[in-house]
């Protein structure tokens, strides 16, 4: 095999010859002033080891044996013709060879003279390919290290997290979902801002027809009934001024109108008599001025008698046979629609019960927020009143023609024993008189439904239309009676 480049020395090649050290001789004893010449070998002496014509072992490298020692010849046989050899220096004990060069391998030469070992450098025949491989490995490792260092520097030494995300559009919402209902109703909802000498206020309303009629609560616009301005903001951002068409304090309803607006989106009216407890509902309005707010809940109760208003000077008491809901309603929602799962209006959000004050549900700026007790005027009642306000500018109320004692503490509604002032407790020739009612009678039920107070009796009557026939259950002198009564009509 080759060692190094082609044409170089072979591993079986003999090293360069090295002159052997002169053989060690014994000096003859001195006799006289001059020393005797050293003994010389005889002239005809023959070496015990013949000369090697090839001067190298026949097979491979030398074995582990040592070289033969030099031959010592007798003095008398030394040929006289050879000059004397100088005496060899005395051997030193434990001769120390010079240190080898650091970092090199050396081949042991058994043919070399005693002394320093020959420093033939050991080289590998595969040094060229191995060196190239080491260089390539170093370059690859350096590239990997550099890329890793750049990644660590870029990522601050921490692993970067990428979270999965669904970016595909979910598509249109179901028509009966809250999102679907809101998309259907919101274009017809408006936000009302009133301003007068007594202050400013906000509320909600919704479009009734293409002519620009808008239904809202009376308490939203009553402060500008005599003077002031009303501005209406549509869901699309348009702002228009409005005027009052008519209002009714007893039902807490009002109709206002905008002019010159095209593309109106009236909201469809449903049937509040079909509403049942547990039905899902959605309330839309501008609580605390936050326009376009949508909340959802269920119908908590129906025909819930409530009274509101009358706590401030000039305000009247409203009697509402309300739909109760847990959909969050707050100040600013007043006049907004309460819609069912089909997007049909079943009520007009009008009042709440708050935990902090327990005062007027309509409030006057100090009212607290929703606690899940909201009340809406049934749309069947609101529709009748709105039609009258649009057509005549005022609405009629059903009446029974008697005065009710609101201080009565018993169960039921008592007909006042005495009239107010010079008046009578029963209107002559009125519905009550025709039905045979007398002062002091206690009405306990209407059409079989219990009545527990005078306010509740008024609410039950207001839920009907003038001309409706009612069956009254009453107590008189400890006895129970039933009478038929046809409701009359009154305005104001």
Can you walk through the features of this model?
With 492 residues, this protein is α+β, with helices and mostly antiparallel strands. It is 14% helix and 25% strand. The chain has 6 helices and 19 strands. It has helices spanning 127-154, 178-185, 218-221, 379-392, 431-435, 454-462, and strands spanning 189-196, 199-207, 213-216, 229-234, 239-248, 253-258, 280-285, 293-308, 318-325, 337-339, 345-352, 374-378, 396-399, 413-414, 442-446, 449-450, 469-476, 479-486, 488-491. The strands form 4 sheets. A 6-stranded antiparallel barrel has the order 1-2-3-6-5-4. A hairpin with a 4-residue loop joins strand 5 and strand 6. The termini are far apart.
Widest sheet: strand ordering: 1-2-3-6-5-4
User: What would you call the shape?
Assistant: elongated
**Percent of residues in beta strands:** 15-25%
Mean of residue pLDDT values? 78
Which percent bin holds the helix content?
Answer: 10-25%
How many β strands by DSSP? 19
Low-confidence stretches: 1-21, 25-35, 117-121, 358-365
Return the string of H and E elements.
Answer: HHEEEHEEEEEEEEEHEEHEEHEEE
Which structural traits does this protein have?
25% strand, alpha+beta, six-stranded antiparallel barrel, 6 helices, single chain, elongated
Annotate the secondary structure layout:
Elements: H1 127-154, H2 178-185, E1 189-196, E2 199-207, E3 213-216, H3 218-221, E4 229-234, E5 239-248, E6 253-258, E7 280-285, E8 293-308, E9 318-325, E10 337-339, E11 345-352, E12 374-378, H4 379-392, E13 396-399, E14 413-414, H5 431-435, E15 442-446, E16 449-450, H6 454-462, E17 469-476, E18 479-486, E19 488-491
Antiparallel strand pairs: 1-2, 1-4, 2-3, 3-6, 4-5, 5-6, 7-8, 7-10, 8-9, 9-12, 10-11, 11-12, 13-19, 14-15, 15-16, 15-17, 17-18
């Amino acid at each position: 095999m080759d060692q190094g480049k082609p044409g170089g020395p072979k591993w079986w090649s003999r090293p360069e010859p090295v002159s052997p050290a002169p053989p060690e001789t014994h000096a003859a004893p001195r006799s006289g002033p001059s020393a005797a010449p050293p003994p010389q070998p005889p002239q005809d002496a023959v070496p015990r080891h013949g000369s090697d014509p090839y001067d190298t072992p026949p097979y491979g490298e030398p074995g582990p044996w040592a070289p033969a020692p030099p031959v010592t010849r007798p003095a008398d046989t030394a040929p006289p013709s050879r000059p004397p050899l100088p005496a060899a220096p005395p051997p030193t004990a434990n001769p120390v060879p010079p240190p080898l060069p650091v970092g090199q391998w050396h081949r042991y030469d058994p043919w070399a003279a005693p002394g320093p070992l020959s420093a033939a450098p050991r080289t590998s025949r595969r040094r060229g390919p191995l060196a190239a491989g080491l260089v390539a490995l170093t370059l690859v490792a350096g590239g990997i290290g550099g890329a890793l260092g750049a990644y660590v520097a870029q990522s601050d030494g921490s692993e970067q997290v990428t979270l999965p995300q669904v970016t595909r559009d979910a598509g249109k919402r179901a028509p009966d979902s809250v999102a679907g209902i809101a998309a259907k109703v919101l274009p017809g909802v408006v936000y009302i801002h009133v301003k007068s000498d007594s202050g400013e206020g906000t509320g909600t309303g919704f479009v009734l027809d293409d002519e620009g009629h808008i239904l809202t609560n009376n308490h939203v616009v009553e402060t500008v009934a005599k003077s002031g301005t009303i501005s209406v903001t549509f869901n699309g951002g348009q702002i228009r001024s409005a005027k009052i068409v008519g209002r009714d304090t007893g039902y807490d309803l009002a109709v206002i109108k905008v002019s010159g607006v095209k593309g109106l989106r009236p909201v469809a009216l449903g049937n509040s008599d079909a509403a049942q407890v547990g039905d899902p509902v959605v309330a839309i309005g501008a609580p605390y001025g936050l326009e376009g707010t949508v909340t959802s809940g269920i119908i908590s109760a129906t025909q819930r008698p409530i009274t509101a208003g009358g706590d401030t000077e000039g305000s009247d008491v409203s009697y509402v046979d309300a739909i109760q809901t847990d959909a969050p309603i707050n100040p600013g929602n007043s006049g907004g629609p309460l819609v069912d799962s089909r997007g049909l209006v079943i009520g007009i959000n009008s009042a709440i019960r708050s935990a902090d004050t327990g005062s007027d549900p309509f409030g006057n700026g100090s009212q607290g927020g929703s606690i899940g007790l909201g009340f809406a005027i049934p749309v069947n009642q609101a529709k009748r009143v709105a039609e009258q306000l649009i057509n005549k500018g005022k609405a009629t109320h059903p009446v029974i023609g008697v005065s009710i004692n609101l201080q009565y503490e018993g169960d039921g509604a008592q007909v006042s024993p005495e009239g107010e002032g010079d008046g009578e407790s029963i209107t002559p020739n009125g519905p009550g008189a025709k039905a045979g009612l007398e002062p002091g009678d206690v009405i306990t039920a209407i059409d079989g439904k219990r009545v527990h107070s005078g306010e509740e009796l008024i609410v039950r009557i207001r839920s009907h239309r003038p001309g409706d026939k009612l069956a009254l259950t009453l107590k008189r002198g400890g006895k129970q009676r039933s009478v038929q009564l046809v409701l009359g009509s009154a305005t104001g």
